[in-house]
Structures are given as C-alpha cells and as structure tokens.
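Thread: CP-type G domain-containing protein, structure

OP (GT): Posting the sequence first so everyone is looking at the same thing. Length is 217 residues per the record. Can we get the structure tokens written out before standup tomorrow? I want them in the notebook alongside the other entries.
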Amino acid sequence: MPKNEKTGLGRALVKHHNQMMQQSKEKGKYYRSQQKKILESVTDVNDIEAVIEAADEANRFLSNAESSLKIPIRLDSASSSNESTGEGRREQREREEALHASSLRIPRRPPWNAKMSVEELEENERRAFLDWRRSLARLEENENLVLTPFEKNLDMWRQLWRVLERSDLVVMVVDARDPLFYRCPDLEAYAREIDEHKRTLLLVNKADLLPLFVRLR
C-alpha cells in the first residue's frame, strides 16, 4: 500500500475515534444534566412523588382525563365479598393470576437504531416505560390480583436492556429454597426475542442450606 494511502487510513481511523469520543461525552453531559441518581433502585414511591410523576406524565403524553398513574396501588387482596371463604378467595386469585399472566411482563425496549439522537432515544424509552407502568396500574384495579413491588426507575431497566443486547449468556441467580419463585421465564423469552441464539443459565444459590435429596431433585 502506498505511503499516502496508509496516512489517509490512519487519519480516517483517528477521525472516527474522535467522533465516537465526542458522542460519548455528549451522552454523558446529557445524563448528568438530568440531575438524578441514575442507578438508584426505586420499588416504592410516596404520595408526593406519585403526584409529581402523574402530573409530569400527563404534561408530556396525555390529557388530564387520560392520566392513569393516579390509581392507588393495592398491596393486599381484600375481597369484595365478606362472605367469601379464604379458600374461595385463593382459588379466585389463582384464576385471575392465570388469566392475566401474559400481561405481567418485563418492559421491552422500543426499537432503536444508531442514527437516533440521545434525546429521541430517551423519549421513546420513557414513553414505552410509562405505557408499561399504565398497564400494571390497570391490573392493580383488580382487587383479586396482588402485584408485588416492582422496579420503578427507568434507568435500572435501561441497564437490563443494554446488558441483554450485549450478552450471549444470561445468568439468573435463584434461591435454592424456592427457585421457581425467583426464576423469571419472561426474561428468558425476552432474551430469545432479541436473539434466538442467546442462552440462559440458572445459577442455584444457597444450595448448601438444603438436604442432599432435595438438591438432587
């Protein structure tokens, strides 16, 4: 290869590297400007935070009449009929849970490409996340369903989205004392949606707390 071609290739590589560095700096400045703790887990909110979030959502995406995050969250399974037996309520709850199981899903990252701006990507991800929150809020109206606390910080889900996209093997750590409770089949399904060749591994933790015959099973 002639010397001038080598020099041209080197300049192109340096230029590309500098462009990538500049894009990274711009993204970093954008997230720092949000003035929030990006990786702070949030599984509950107080009344004031809920009102602020609902108002912000309404201003961005919905009219006041369509705001749905003002629905109170119910953490118990109080029955509408005092005459129902405990066994009857349990069976009814199991039927409702089976009926709505397909709605209890991990939020999906909206389609994206490298040409999107940081602001556009941020907006699309926020919109998809709020749609997911609304769907859960509608489920919480059903007094026969019990939703356990879930992650409400979008940036935590962003970390999961990006890890799934970059990983060939997804490892889920489950407690040996109740592994199926901690296993998330939808996470496995989501990984296959991204790439059918992605593999999932269950890592059974605290197995030493169980007797041998249980571990063998």
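GT: Both are above now. Quick notes for whoever picks this up: Confidence is low (pLDDT under 50) at residues 77-83. Helices lie at 3-32, 47-60, 86-99, 118-140, 154-166, 179-182, 185-194, 212-216.
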